[in-house]
Amino acid sequence: MNKNLKLAVPLSLMSMIFFPSATWMFFMLQYLNFQEIATIMGIGAIASIVMEIPTGVFADMVGRKWAIALSYFLFTAAMIWMTVATSYTAFLLITLVNCLVNSLYSGSMEALLYDTLKQDKKEGEFDHWTSRMESVTWLGLFLSTVIGGYLHMMNPKYPYFAEAIVMAIATVLSLMLVEPRIDSIKYKVSDVWKNNFLGFKELFATKKMRYMTTIFVVIGVGYVVAADILGISQTREYGLDAQTVGWVFGIGYIISALASHFYPKLRKMAGSMRLVWGSATFLIISFVLAKYVGAWAGVGLIVLRIASSTTFRNSRSVLINSEIGSANRATTLSTLTLLTNIPYALSAIWIGGYIDRTSPNQFAWM
Question: What is the pTM of this model?
Answer without folding.
Answer: 0.71
